[in-house]
Amino acid sequence: xxxxxxxxxxxxxxxVFVMKIISFFIFLYILSGIASSAEKSPKxxxxxTCESCHQxxxxxxxxxxxSWAWRRPESxxxxxxxxxxxxxxxxxxxxxxxxxxxxxVIADNGEDKTERFRxxxxxxxxxxxxxxVETGRGHLQALDVAWDSDNxxxxxxxxxxxxxxxxxxxxxxxxxxxxxxxxxxxxxxxxKNYDPxxxxxxxxxxxxxxxxxxxxxxxxxxxxxANEPEKYVTNTWKGTNTKGLTAAxxxxxxxxxxxxxxxxxxxxxxxxxxxxxxxxxxxxxxxxSLLSHGLYFxxxxxxxxxxVYGSFLQSKMYEKGVKCSNCHDTHSYRLKAxxxxxxxxxxxxxxxxxxxxxxxxxxxxxxxxFHQLGSEGAECIECHMPERHYMxxxxxxxxxxxxxxxxxxxxxxxxxxxxxxxxxKTASWAKEEIAKRHPxxxxxxxxxxxxxxxxxxxxxxxxxxxxxxxxxxxxLPAIVRATALERLFPAAGKLDFREIEPLLTDDNAxxxxxxxxxxxxxxxxxxxxxxxxLLNDSVRSVRLEAIKAFLETTPEKVTFSERLMxxxxxREYQQSLLDKADFPEIQMVIGGVALTKRNIPAAISxxxxxxxxxxxxxxxxxMLARIRAAVGETSEAKQMLKKAVExxxxxxxxxxxxxxxxx
Length: 663
Description:
two-stranded antiparallel ribbon; 16 strands; alpha+beta; 663 residues; eight-stranded antiparallel β-sheet
């Protein structure tokens, strides 16, 4: 009995002790909750609040392209001639006028009617300035007629394209919508706020233009420290240090700086609707466009407008740790030196201690460039950073800093800098001249362009093998390796997927993503299980591409924890699609996902929205007709095809489908 009583007493004592421990941890949890709730995210305060303490930096920024990225239509900001001037294009006459303090444009409204629009805001300063107007429901649209501020004239941005009413490329259409396509990179802390049910925007930003806080992060905590440093408490503010500086400013290394710039200076697809936190990891917010045909030439030279990052990633300079601010002043955006002096700050006979692997020699010499000193041909950028023009007048230079390879121009349709100037000569001549003048340099070495060359269209065994060799070559830039995998998609049926699986754990996120997309086509019966680990990848862009690939599979056995992970990433993916519901190309993806889920009404709605946003999306029309026919709605399918042909009268695929329906 005594034992029982003592035992009961011992049990009670244990229970009291356990309850005290539990109470203690609950107390700690409550305290941590109070502490975390006490912490607050700093707010954006506007660039003007930075001026009093940072006058030099503020003055440099205030007239920079970043400052001019988006401004109000005040007289000091409007460069175009609005003195009742006219500009004609494709049979329509645009008029530009000013009344009182407001600026107006008379333009075609997308319905073959003339309409008067008030200028909402202006974009850019040189070499051109664009004008935004609001067309209703919060839609800001960028006019296709812009002001050439270098030559003082109105001109059309796309003179060779069909931008007429009824086409997806008309200025009132989704591709010219400012809210979805442009604003994030022209504003500070941009929030898109799109309502897909009503096709309405209630967009908001902390500041129009790329302000100080777009790069340095929200400034409220830093102001709090600056005003009363003795009272400043670090743990009051999330993500700041003892001076109230945010993480965007604290990470001081090349990769972090490039990451900060790359979000806007790259061709990419956003993952969410709003501006990411300044300084946050690129691949958690964007999916980089690889060296795709049409965007880049086979050798990686820029072709379409790709905004620097993709070409810079290919360069030896990136590999060696060169960052944007080595050449560009971070506040004025201007180059740090004029002419060849910019390059010779490193490329000279003494070298540069920051980059010890540099060859030490005099590059600004006729012995190197073989052109008269001071001439255009003697400029470093003319040979190593060729320029292409976009939007007619906007010259952008290739940042891959490549050695001229006219031998590649002999083999495929790629430009070379020698023949850009010496247009009366052949690529063979240029190749021989380079070999003659630089005999010690190894010429005509293997180049990934010879595998990527689209003109040969090789999908044979040898080509597949070569692409896989590129993908596994760790000496190549990651963007090239990922592109090698992406270009294998048409040949997926010829792959041995045992060679792909190791790339699913590659160090680079782009390589992992491309490998995941290829695994979808694998004959492997357990490909769903192969993809599951990527759903827990630390990089959001990889997780989202993995779930897209996973949707194409049929998993055999999924554990409870894996099921929870799948649901979590699926919600993440659905949110990303919802955030971009104003993109016609995303509506195509939504339609495809709906089909995999056997949700026919959702698929019809998505493909219908896609053709409403872009009437020239042929595949969306085709899918609508096929779905309608498949569910027995033949008359609806016929009506759909008639509308499709009206919008695309020259399309043979749509015409053939109409014939198949007996129309």
